[in-house]
Protein backbone atom coordinates (compact mmCIF):
# COMPACT_ATOMS: atom_id res chain seq x y z
CA UNK A 1 0.00 0.00 0.00
CA UNK A 2 2.75 2.45 0.96
CA UNK A 3 4.75 1.60 -2.17
CA UNK A 4 1.72 2.33 -4.38
CA UNK A 5 1.26 5.74 -2.74
CA UNK A 6 4.97 6.51 -3.23
CA UNK A 7 4.81 5.53 -6.91
CA UNK A 8 1.84 7.83 -7.47
CA UNK A 9 3.62 10.77 -5.83
CA UNK A 10 6.78 10.21 -7.86
CA UNK A 11 4.81 9.91 -11.11
CA UNK A 12 3.15 13.33 -10.66
CA UNK A 13 4.69 15.71 -13.23
CA UNK A 14 4.79 18.91 -11.25
CA UNK A 15 6.77 21.79 -12.64
CA UNK A 16 8.43 24.69 -10.88
CA UNK A 17 8.11 28.40 -11.49
CA UNK A 18 10.44 30.54 -13.53
CA UNK A 19 13.01 32.15 -11.19
CA UNK A 20 13.17 35.22 -13.44
CA UNK A 21 10.83 38.06 -12.35
CA UNK A 22 9.01 40.30 -14.82
CA UNK A 23 9.01 37.64 -17.56
CA UNK A 24 6.49 39.63 -19.60
CA UNK A 25 8.98 42.52 -19.80
CA UNK A 26 11.67 40.16 -21.08
CA UNK A 27 9.46 38.63 -23.79
CA UNK A 28 8.33 42.10 -24.93
CA UNK A 29 11.96 43.19 -25.27
CA UNK A 30 12.74 39.89 -27.04
CA UNK A 31 10.17 40.41 -29.80
CA UNK A 32 11.31 43.98 -30.38
CA UNK A 33 14.97 42.98 -30.66
CA UNK A 34 14.19 39.98 -32.90
CA UNK A 35 12.29 42.19 -35.32
CA UNK A 36 15.19 44.64 -35.50
CA UNK A 37 18.05 42.14 -35.77
CA UNK A 38 16.34 39.64 -38.10
CA UNK A 39 15.26 42.41 -40.47
CA UNK A 40 18.94 43.15 -41.04
CA UNK A 41 19.96 39.47 -41.21
CA UNK A 42 17.23 38.32 -43.63
CA UNK A 43 16.99 41.61 -45.58
CA UNK A 44 13.21 41.57 -45.11
CA UNK A 45 10.65 43.03 -42.75
CA UNK A 46 10.10 40.69 -39.84
CA UNK A 47 7.37 40.47 -37.21
CA UNK A 48 7.72 38.38 -34.05
CA UNK A 49 4.92 37.14 -31.80
CA UNK A 50 5.23 35.15 -28.56
CA UNK A 51 2.88 32.17 -28.93
CA UNK A 52 3.58 30.59 -25.53
CA UNK A 53 5.83 31.10 -22.53
CA UNK A 54 5.56 28.43 -19.86
CA UNK A 55 7.51 25.99 -17.70
CA UNK A 56 7.37 22.33 -18.76
CA UNK A 57 9.21 19.10 -18.15
CA UNK A 58 12.17 18.67 -20.49
CA UNK A 59 11.14 15.11 -21.40
CA UNK A 60 7.76 16.36 -22.65
CA UNK A 61 9.39 19.10 -24.73
CA UNK A 62 11.85 16.71 -26.39
CA UNK A 63 9.08 14.22 -27.21
CA UNK A 64 7.35 16.86 -29.36
CA UNK A 65 10.41 17.68 -31.49
CA UNK A 66 10.28 15.99 -34.93
CA UNK A 67 13.26 14.29 -36.62
CA UNK A 68 15.18 15.65 -38.43
CA UNK A 69 15.22 19.04 -36.70
CA UNK A 70 17.46 22.07 -36.72
CA UNK A 71 18.64 22.24 -33.13
CA UNK A 72 20.99 24.93 -31.85
CA UNK A 73 22.78 23.67 -28.73
CA UNK A 74 23.55 26.67 -26.52
CA UNK A 75 26.35 26.54 -23.97
CA UNK A 76 25.95 28.60 -20.80
CA UNK A 77 28.98 29.79 -18.87
CA UNK A 78 29.13 28.32 -15.37
CA UNK A 79 26.44 25.68 -15.95
CA UNK A 80 26.78 22.04 -17.01
CA UNK A 81 23.34 22.03 -18.64
CA UNK A 82 22.64 23.41 -22.11
CA UNK A 83 19.89 25.57 -23.56
CA UNK A 84 18.25 24.75 -26.88
CA UNK A 85 16.89 26.62 -29.89
CA UNK A 86 14.58 24.44 -31.99
CA UNK A 87 13.83 25.81 -35.48
CA UNK A 88 10.96 24.16 -37.32
CA UNK A 89 11.46 22.94 -40.89
CA UNK A 90 9.31 25.68 -42.49
CA UNK A 91 11.38 28.42 -40.87
CA UNK A 92 14.63 26.66 -41.85
CA UNK A 93 13.49 26.67 -45.48
CA UNK A 94 12.66 30.40 -45.40
CA UNK A 95 15.88 31.37 -43.59
CA UNK A 96 18.04 29.44 -46.06
CA UNK A 97 16.13 30.77 -49.07
CA UNK A 98 16.30 34.41 -47.96
CA UNK A 99 19.95 34.26 -46.93
CA UNK A 100 20.78 32.86 -50.39
CA UNK A 101 19.05 35.76 -52.14
CA UNK A 102 15.41 34.68 -52.20
CA UNK A 103 12.69 37.24 -52.93
CA UNK A 104 10.91 38.46 -49.74
CA UNK A 105 7.90 39.45 -51.87
CA UNK A 106 7.22 35.83 -52.84
CA UNK A 107 6.31 32.88 -50.62
CA UNK A 108 7.27 29.56 -52.21
CA UNK A 109 5.87 26.56 -50.32
CA UNK A 110 8.46 24.97 -47.99
CA UNK A 111 9.92 21.72 -49.27
CA UNK A 112 10.24 18.81 -46.83
CA UNK A 113 13.76 17.44 -47.10
CA UNK A 114 16.78 16.45 -45.05
CA UNK A 115 19.01 19.31 -43.96
CA UNK A 116 22.41 19.72 -45.58
CA UNK A 117 25.66 21.14 -44.24
CA UNK A 118 24.86 24.40 -46.09
CA UNK A 119 21.49 24.61 -44.32
CA UNK A 120 23.20 24.17 -40.95
CA UNK A 121 25.84 26.80 -41.75
CA UNK A 122 23.23 29.36 -42.83
CA UNK A 123 21.12 28.67 -39.74
CA UNK A 124 24.08 29.22 -37.43
CA UNK A 125 23.87 32.97 -38.03
CA UNK A 126 20.13 32.92 -37.34
CA UNK A 127 20.63 30.93 -34.13
CA UNK A 128 23.42 33.21 -32.90
CA UNK A 129 21.19 36.22 -33.55
CA UNK A 130 18.39 34.69 -31.47
CA UNK A 131 20.86 34.05 -28.62
CA UNK A 132 22.09 37.66 -28.75
CA UNK A 133 18.50 38.96 -28.73
CA UNK A 134 17.65 36.77 -25.74
CA UNK A 135 20.62 38.06 -23.75
CA UNK A 136 19.82 41.68 -24.65
CA UNK A 137 16.18 41.14 -23.65
CA UNK A 138 17.26 39.76 -20.28
CA UNK A 139 19.56 42.73 -19.71
CA UNK A 140 16.74 45.15 -20.48
CA UNK A 141 14.04 43.22 -18.60
CA UNK A 142 16.15 42.51 -15.50
CA UNK A 143 17.81 45.93 -15.45
CA UNK A 144 21.36 44.59 -15.15
CA UNK A 145 24.37 44.52 -17.53
CA UNK A 146 24.62 40.71 -17.78
CA UNK A 147 27.72 39.25 -19.44
CA UNK A 148 27.42 37.25 -22.67
CA UNK A 149 26.87 33.99 -20.78
CA UNK A 150 25.24 32.08 -23.67
CA UNK A 151 26.88 31.09 -26.95
CA UNK A 152 26.16 28.62 -29.76
CA UNK A 153 28.06 25.38 -29.17
CA UNK A 154 26.96 23.37 -32.22
CA UNK A 155 24.08 22.48 -34.54
CA UNK A 156 22.41 19.06 -34.30
CA UNK A 157 19.63 17.45 -36.32
CA UNK A 158 18.67 14.43 -34.21
CA UNK A 159 17.21 15.04 -30.76
CA UNK A 160 18.41 11.61 -29.59
CA UNK A 161 21.99 12.94 -29.86
CA UNK A 162 21.27 15.84 -27.53
CA UNK A 163 21.47 15.90 -23.74
CA UNK A 164 20.55 19.26 -22.30
CA UNK A 165 19.71 18.27 -18.73
CA UNK A 166 18.05 15.37 -16.85
CA UNK A 167 14.72 14.40 -18.42
CA UNK A 168 12.73 15.39 -15.33
CA UNK A 169 14.29 18.88 -15.25
CA UNK A 170 12.01 21.90 -15.50
CA UNK A 171 12.59 24.14 -18.51
CA UNK A 172 11.18 27.49 -19.61
CA UNK A 173 9.84 27.19 -23.17
CA UNK A 174 9.35 30.36 -25.23
CA UNK A 175 7.58 29.71 -28.53
CA UNK A 176 8.00 32.44 -31.16
CA UNK A 177 6.24 32.84 -34.51
CA UNK A 178 7.94 34.90 -37.23
CA UNK A 179 6.18 36.68 -40.09
CA UNK A 180 8.77 37.47 -42.78
CA UNK A 181 8.64 39.65 -45.85
CA UNK A 182 5.85 41.23 -47.88
CA UNK A 183 4.51 37.77 -48.74
CA UNK A 184 4.16 36.91 -45.02
CA UNK A 185 6.34 33.83 -44.93
CA UNK A 186 5.74 32.14 -41.59
CA UNK A 187 7.70 29.84 -39.31
CA UNK A 188 8.17 29.00 -35.64
CA UNK A 189 11.05 28.35 -33.28
CA UNK A 190 11.41 27.48 -29.60
CA UNK A 191 13.83 28.72 -26.98
CA UNK A 192 14.26 26.06 -24.27
CA UNK A 193 16.00 27.26 -21.11
CA UNK A 194 16.53 24.92 -18.12
CA UNK A 195 15.61 26.66 -14.87
CA UNK A 196 19.16 26.02 -13.64
CA UNK A 197 20.36 28.32 -16.44
CA UNK A 198 17.91 31.01 -15.37
CA UNK A 199 19.11 30.65 -11.76
CA UNK A 200 22.65 31.49 -12.89
CA UNK A 201 21.48 34.50 -14.90
CA UNK A 202 19.41 35.76 -11.99
CA UNK A 203 22.41 35.43 -9.66
CA UNK A 204 24.54 37.37 -12.15
CA UNK A 205 21.89 40.09 -12.32
CA UNK A 206 21.81 40.35 -8.53
CA UNK A 207 25.59 40.84 -8.39
CA UNK A 208 25.81 43.29 -11.29
CA UNK A 209 24.98 46.98 -10.69
CA UNK A 210 22.25 48.31 -12.95
CA UNK A 211 23.29 50.93 -15.51
CA UNK A 212 21.65 54.36 -15.51
CA UNK A 213 20.13 53.79 -18.96
CA UNK A 214 18.56 50.50 -17.92
CA UNK A 215 17.28 51.94 -14.67
CA UNK A 216 15.69 54.88 -16.50
CA UNK A 217 13.91 52.63 -19.01
CA UNK A 218 12.88 50.11 -16.36
CA UNK A 219 11.64 52.80 -13.94
CA UNK A 220 9.51 54.41 -16.66
CA UNK A 221 7.88 51.05 -17.43
CA UNK A 222 7.37 50.26 -13.74
CA UNK A 223 5.72 53.64 -13.15
CA UNK A 224 3.36 53.06 -16.04
CA UNK A 225 2.41 49.57 -14.81
CA UNK A 226 2.15 50.80 -11.20
CA UNK A 227 -0.31 53.49 -12.25
CA UNK A 228 -2.34 50.93 -14.23
CA UNK A 229 -2.37 48.50 -11.27
CA UNK A 230 -3.36 51.24 -8.81
CA UNK A 231 -6.31 52.24 -11.01
CA UNK A 232 -7.49 48.67 -11.66
CA UNK A 233 -10.92 47.86 -10.25
CA UNK A 234 -11.22 44.87 -7.90
CA UNK A 235 -14.50 43.19 -7.03
CA UNK A 236 -15.20 43.48 -3.27
CA UNK A 237 -17.83 41.21 -1.68
CA UNK A 238 -19.40 41.26 1.76
CA UNK A 239 -20.49 37.81 3.03
CA UNK A 240 -23.11 38.20 5.76
CA UNK A 241 -23.66 34.54 6.57
CA UNK A 242 -23.01 31.07 5.13
CA UNK A 243 -24.51 27.74 6.12
CA UNK A 244 -24.77 24.21 4.82
CA UNK A 245 -28.04 22.74 3.57
CA UNK A 246 -28.97 19.35 2.22
CA UNK A 247 -30.14 18.92 -1.35
CA UNK A 248 -33.62 18.10 -0.07
CA UNK A 249 -33.74 21.34 1.91
CA UNK A 250 -32.65 23.33 -1.14
CA UNK A 251 -35.29 21.68 -3.33
CA UNK A 252 -37.96 22.49 -0.74
CA UNK A 253 -37.22 26.24 -0.66
CA UNK A 254 -40.05 28.45 -1.91
CA UNK A 255 -40.65 32.23 -1.92
CA UNK A 256 -41.52 33.36 1.58
CA UNK A 257 -39.38 30.79 3.40
CA UNK A 258 -37.19 32.19 6.19
CA UNK A 259 -33.49 31.32 6.58
CA UNK A 260 -32.35 32.03 10.10
CA UNK A 261 -29.04 33.77 10.81
CA UNK A 262 -27.22 34.18 14.13
CA UNK A 263 -27.56 37.53 15.88
CA UNK A 264 -23.85 38.21 15.45
CA UNK A 265 -23.97 37.86 11.62
CA UNK A 266 -24.41 41.60 11.00
CA UNK A 267 -21.46 42.37 13.27
CA UNK A 268 -19.10 39.88 11.67
CA UNK A 269 -19.36 40.32 7.87
CA UNK A 270 -16.49 38.83 5.87
CA UNK A 271 -14.99 41.21 3.30
CA UNK A 272 -13.42 39.34 0.36
CA UNK A 273 -11.54 40.49 -2.74
CA UNK A 274 -11.64 39.10 -6.26
CA UNK A 275 -13.91 36.91 -8.30
CA UNK A 276 -15.95 34.03 -6.93
CA UNK A 277 -13.46 31.40 -8.15
CA UNK A 278 -10.40 32.87 -6.40
CA UNK A 279 -11.54 35.24 -3.67
CA UNK A 280 -9.11 36.31 -0.96
CA UNK A 281 -10.18 37.01 2.63
CA UNK A 282 -9.48 40.67 3.36
CA UNK A 283 -11.02 41.71 6.70
CA UNK A 284 -14.27 41.78 8.70
CA UNK A 285 -16.87 44.52 9.13
CA UNK A 286 -20.21 45.26 10.79
CA UNK A 287 -23.37 46.63 9.20
CA UNK A 288 -24.49 50.14 10.09
CA UNK A 289 -26.00 53.32 8.66
CA UNK A 290 -24.60 56.73 7.72
CA UNK A 291 -26.52 59.71 6.37
CA UNK A 292 -29.53 57.55 5.62
CA UNK A 293 -27.55 54.91 3.72
CA UNK A 294 -26.43 51.43 4.67
CA UNK A 295 -22.69 51.09 5.19
CA UNK A 296 -20.01 48.71 6.44
CA UNK A 297 -17.51 49.66 9.11
CA UNK A 298 -14.27 47.69 9.19
CA UNK A 299 -13.57 46.01 12.51
CA UNK A 300 -10.12 44.48 11.77
CA UNK A 301 -7.00 45.42 9.85
CA UNK A 302 -6.31 43.51 6.59
CA UNK A 303 -3.80 40.64 7.09
CA UNK A 304 -0.09 41.60 6.85
CA UNK A 305 0.55 39.27 3.90
CA UNK A 306 -2.15 41.01 1.86
CA UNK A 307 -0.66 44.43 2.66
CA UNK A 308 2.85 43.29 1.70
CA UNK A 309 1.53 41.76 -1.54
CA UNK A 310 -0.17 45.01 -2.56
CA UNK A 311 2.89 47.07 -1.61
CA UNK A 312 5.20 44.84 -3.69
CA UNK A 313 2.74 44.85 -6.62
CA UNK A 314 2.76 48.66 -6.63
CA UNK A 315 6.51 48.99 -6.09
CA UNK A 316 8.68 50.31 -8.91
CA UNK A 317 11.90 48.85 -7.56
CA UNK A 318 13.52 46.54 -10.17
CA UNK A 319 14.37 43.88 -7.58
CA UNK A 320 10.83 43.57 -6.25
CA UNK A 321 8.32 41.08 -7.65
CA UNK A 322 4.99 40.29 -5.96
CA UNK A 323 4.43 36.72 -4.86
CA UNK A 324 0.99 35.15 -5.11
CA UNK A 325 -0.88 34.70 -1.84
CA UNK A 326 -3.35 31.87 -1.29
Automatic annotation (TrEMBL):
Membrane topology designation: Peripheral membrane protein
Protein family: Belongs to the FliM family.
Keyword tags: Bacterial flagellum, Cell membrane, Cell projection, Chemotaxis, Cilium, Flagellar rotation, Flagellum, Membrane
MF-aspect GO terms: cytoskeletal motor activity
Predominant localisation class: other
Subcellular location(s) per record: Bacterial flagellum basal body; Cell membrane
InterPro entries: CheC-like_sf, Flag_FliM, FliN-like_C, SpoA-like_sf
Classification via Pfam families: FliM, FliMN_C
Superkingdom as given in the UniProt entry: Bacteria
Role according to the record: FliM is one of three proteins (FliG, FliN, FliM) that forms the rotor-mounted switch complex (C ring), located at the base of the basal body. This complex interacts with the CheY and CheZ chemotaxis proteins, in addition to contacting components of the motor that determine the direction of flagellar rotation.
GO BP: bacterial-type flagellum-dependent swarming motility; positive chemotaxis
Protein name (Swiss-Prot/TrEMBL): Flagellar motor switch protein FliM
Cross-referenced CDD domains: FliM
Gene3D superfamilies found in the cross-reference section: CheC-like, SpoA-like
GO cellular component: bacterial-type flagellum basal body; plasma membrane
SUPFAM superfamilies, per database record: CheC-like, Surface presentation of antigens (SPOA)
Domain Flagellar motor switch protein FliN-like C-terminal stretches: 231-300
Amino acid sequence: MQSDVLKKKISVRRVGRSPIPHLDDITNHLTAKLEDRLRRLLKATTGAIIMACEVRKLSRVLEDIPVPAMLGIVAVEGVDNYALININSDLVYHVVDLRMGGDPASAPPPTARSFTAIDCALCEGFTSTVIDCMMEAMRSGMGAPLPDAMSLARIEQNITQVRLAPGNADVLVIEVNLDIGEAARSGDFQIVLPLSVLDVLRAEAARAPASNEMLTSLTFWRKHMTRAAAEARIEVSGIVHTQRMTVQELEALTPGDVILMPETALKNIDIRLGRLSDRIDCTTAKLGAFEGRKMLKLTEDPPPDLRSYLESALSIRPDTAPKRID
